[in-house]
Amino acid sequence: MAADEPEGSRPAGRPTAGLRHTRRLTDKILIAFHHACDQGDFEVAEEMLRILEMIITRRTVSPDTNRRKNMESLVAAHERLWLLRHPESRD
After folding, report:
1. How far apart are the C-alpha atoms of 61 and 64, rounded to whole Å?
2. Which of the residues 18, 23, 82, 90 could staple to 27 if both were Cys, CB 3.0 to 4.6 A apart?
3. How many domains does the structure of the chain reveal?
């Protein structure tokens, strides 16, 4: 913040620090997984799935309202990786 700006002001269009992180970590890892698949780097994609599974399956203090959606995304990601590694099975 510049010295001549009043405290609490910010330029128009710039998010506040609290709004900067709009995506959940699981979403970011899933995006990285799909990017690795798109690049044909199945080893990295598999590692992303391992990390995603670790995050989703560990116990949380409060119940996660998105747990079912997370599990469905994880299953779909595993299916995509399997199909990419076994293209002959699509027939």
Report:
1. 9
2. 23
3. 1
